[in-house]
Design brief:
heterodimer; A: alpha+beta; Nucleotidyltransferase, domain 5; Actin, Chain A, domain 4; Substrate Binding Domain Of DNAk, Chain A, domain 1; 16 helices; 28 strands; B: about 180 residues; mainly alpha; Helix Hairpins; Monooxygenase; 2 domains; globular
């Protein structure tokens, strides 16, 4: 056989090798892997012909990790060593996870030095990156046996709303699994690719992705093979699980009305609810049976139970339209992704809002993996690079902490990536030689309400008066949505850089809360911001006066000094307790009270200068 | 490959003017992104990849600048060495400030629930009309090369844009986003 591969000199070039690249949908509940087969891209099944791999890993002493259906079967019997939904743990700190302990049956490893969350299993301590890598490993194995060879690259999908830490850990997991990551691709973009390539469509596409636990909606414009994400939004705590929960509560309420029937466990109720939900996707009504008891659930009752959740999805659609500056009539196609979009009630609501029937031709569970597989095929070089291009956006605003714990946004949300932006900052105190930079992500105005991404310092800034130094802070987000930050002092060219990695061990509000809170707190933020600004102004004045008193305090009479120190005290008290208006007033008061002192200093310095002494010398 | 210092208008083969053909701008943007985007270099060596990230970022920045009328106005002035960051209090007319105060009062007085949505829409349209009027005015002064007046109009434009952002934020608040 080997002889056949030897090429004759000057002979015809053989057809270039088809390189092995896959698309991977690393899901919360299930994962899939897809690759190109002849003309199209298909998801790959396991030996039992199952395409979906449950995202569950079981660890046992002295054995390799067990992934998928067999691991899922151990969830009830061996909860401490069986880990499901690891995707929900990505990018979180240990303290955040422990705050949710009631949902997680695991024991966390407290001894880990870096504060990264890790779970204690029989097979040792496993962190979220390792667990994710084990799921990816199972998919790689499936793909390599199916494609008969080593993989050369992979495109891995992430929710559009994933923050920097979550993206970084996904990439780390892939590298740990031995994969070369060609690109991290946003799930909705992948879905649009799966639908958009065959037809040479032009126009605006909405991707509506309602999964088990999260809801994503993205708006893309498709033109000449370029997919441009115009806006993305959603709700990270809304999904099919909530619908099951609502039905389960309904069953429990019905049971209570009929005396003498024992209410089953929550797990059992959920199971019944889930089954009823699936029944109602095909039928108008279903009967729920518990022993001798039964109840009828019909579509109109389900409509009532889910009304609020469906309204929330429509609200997100409206917001995305607004962010993109479009109206419902401008949308040409709606792509449905995620198991929950099989519900007729969901489809109807979407159709009604956009005035169009959504596309459902591709299996809603497989569409993301297929889109990722298509992109992998292009990036590895099997397909002409001219066929299409994906332009993604960053889902959350990125900024830097400024004085008074305020966030200065450097890159606003929905900016097309890659993107580089720079902004100049200055020093706050006289003679300041170190500047601490705190990089944050989120929509709110106060640092404490955003997610902390990284902290670093720029040192050896030449000592100058406050406000004289110029420090340029540059943000670069690459095509995977990953951020790096650098800072440079412009007069000396001194530089400090950081590749942003998740920072652990601090108390942060979780991303889902951040997103939902950001808008409802806009008003509150404005007053908080005004107060911070007023406090800042007050601090600067107090510092300046304290410095001046230190140098030239002897210029003041006893009475003058007393009256000045009274105004200083008044401002110090107002600063901590007052409103922004009150702080402003007290600052103004102190300004007036110190004007006499300022005038005296000025006279002295002019007199000194005239005598030939420099002001600098006097100050020292 | 493009250099990172070219004039944004030259970059997109467009005349350096206030009026701009959005269609040609985005068509040329897409064409060039097709050449420089990092996805075109997924298999390349590290330095080439870095270069692609830089070029693609630069193209995005240039595109966003020209696409937005406000940012385009500031950019045009900066090309004439006019520093728009420097604001002189006297640049802002009393009439404009009074008008801004009135519009803001209107916004603040609206009920804080969904009943205000219709009035918000009306207010947004009112501000949009003013915005368009200011954009035209900017173009007139700019074309006459009266850059001082153009700068004043630019600052007025900023006020209206800010207001329009606040109207949107207020709407989101009421819709419970």
């Amino acid at each position: 056989m080997a002889l056949l591969q030897i090429q004759e000199p000057g002979g015809k070039q053989a057809k270039p090798l088809h390189r092995r690249a896959v698309g991977i949908d690393l899901g919360t509940t299930n994962s899939l892997v897809a690759a190109s087969f002849g003309p199209g891209v298909e998801t790959l099944p396991d030996s039992a012909d199952q395409h979906l791999l449950p995202s569950v890993v079981h660890y046992a002493k002295g054995k390799p990790p067990l992934v998928g259906v067999e691991a899922k079967a151990l969830l009830v019997d061996d909860p401490l060593n069986t880990i499901a939904s690891v995707k929900r743990l990505l990018g979180k700190s240990l303290s955040e996870l422990k705050a949710k302990q009631d949902y997680l049956p695991f024991e966390f490893d407290e001894a880990r030095a870096d504060g990264a969350p890790a779970i204690l299993t029989e097979a040792g301590s496993k962190d979220v990156v390792q667990i994710s890598a084990d799921i990816l490993g199972a998919l790689v194995e499936r793909a390599e046996s199916s494609l008969k060879g080593t993989l050369e690259g992979a495109v891995i999908t992430v929710p559009a709303y994933f923050n920097d830490a979550q993206r970084q850990q996904t990439k780390d997991a892939a590298q740990l699994a031995g994969l070369k990551v060609l690109r991290l691709l946003n799930e909705p973009t992948a879905a649009a690719v799966a639908y958009g390539l065959d037809s040479n469509d032009q126009g605006n596409v909405v991707v509506f992705d309602l999964g088990g636990g999260t809801f994503d909606v993205s708006l893309l414009s498709l033109k000449n093979g370029v997919f441009e994400v115009l806006a993305t939004g959603g709700d990270t705590s809304l999904g099919g699980d909530d619908i099951d929960h609502a039905i389960a509560e309904w069953i429990a309420a019905q049971l209570q009305e009929s005396a003498g029937v024992a209410v089953p466990s929550i797990a059992r109720l959920r199971q019944l609810a889930n089954a009823a939900k699936h029944e109602l996707s095909d039928k108008n009504q279903t009967t729920i049976v518990i022993d001798e008891w039964s109840a009828l659930l019909d579509e109109s009752a389900l409509r009532e139970l889910t009304a609020d959740m469906i309204r929330r999805t429509v609200t997100s659609c409206r917001r995305v339209l607004r962010d993109a500056g479009l109206s419902a009539a401008d949308i040409d196609n709606i792509v449905m992704v995620g198991g929950s979009t099989r519900m007729p009630l969901v489809r109807d609501a979407v159709a009604e809002f956009f005035g169009k029937t959504p596309l459902t031709d591709i299996d809603a569970d497989k569409v993301v993996a297929i889109g990722a597989g298509i992109q992998a095929d292009v990036l590895i070089g099997n397909k002409s690079p001219d066929s299409f291009l994906l332009l993604d956006v960053n889902p959350l605003s990125l900024g830097i902490e400024t004085m008074g714990e305020l966030v200065e946004k450097i890159i606003p949300r929905n900016t097309t990536i890659p993107v580089a932006k720079a902004q100049e900052f200055t020093t706050f105190k006289d003679g300041q030689t170190v500047m601490s930079l705190h990089v944050v992500q989120g929509e709110r105005e106060l640092v404490s309400d955003c997610r902390s991404l990284a902290r670093f310092e720029l040192r050896d800034i030449p000592a100058m008066v406050a406000g004289a130094a110029k420090i340029r802070v540059s943000f670069q987000v690459d095509a995977d949505g990953l951020l790096s930050v650098s800072a440079q002092e412009l007069s000396t060219g001194k530089k400090a850089e950081i590749q942003v990695k998740p920072s652990y061990g601090l108390e942060f509000s979780v991303i889902e809360e951040m997103l939902q809170d950001s808008q409802s707190h806009a008003k509150l933020d404005m007053e908080a911001r005004s107060i911070k600004e007023a406090q800042l102004e007050a601090t600067q004045l107090l510092d300046a006066i304290a410095n001046a008193l230190l140098v030239d305090g002897n210029l003041l009479s006893r009475e003058e000094a007393d009256s000045l120190s009274e105004s200083i005290k008044a401002l110090e008290i107002t600063m901590t307790t007052g409103s922004s208006v009150q702080i402003h007033a007290a600052t103004e008061e102190l300004n007036k009270a110190s004007s006499e002192f300022a005038a005296k200093r000025m006279d002295l310095h002019i007199a000194n200068a005239l005598r030939g002494e420099s002001i600098d010398a006097v100050e020292k | 490959m493009q250099s990172l210092t070219r004039n944004y208008f030259t970059l997109f083969n467009l005349p350096e003017a206030c009026e701009l053909d959005q269609e040609s701008l985005s068509a040329e943007y897409r064409r060039q992104q097709g050449e420089v985007h990092p996805d075109r270099f997924a298999n390349a060596e590290e330095p080439e990849k870095l270069r692609a990230v830089q070029l693609s970022s630069y193209l995005n920045e240039a595109y966003e600048t020209l696409k937005s009328p406000l940012r385009r106005a500031a950019y045009l002035l900066s090309l004439r060495d006019i520093d728009v960051e420097q604001v002189n209090q006297n640049d802002l007319s009393m009439d404009l400030l009074l008008e801004q105060i009135q519009l803001r009062e209107k916004l603040d007085e609206l009920p804080k629930d969904e009943s205000a949505l219709v009035s918000l829409d009306a207010l947004r349209s009112e501000v949009n009309v003013k915005l368009e009027k200011q954009e035209k005015k900017f173009a007139e002064f700019f074309d006459l090369e009266d850059f001082n007046e153009a700068k004043k109009v630019y600052h007025e434009l900023q006020f209206f844009y800010k207001l329009s952002t606040e109207i949107n934020a207020d709407e989101e608040l009421r819709l419970g986003y």
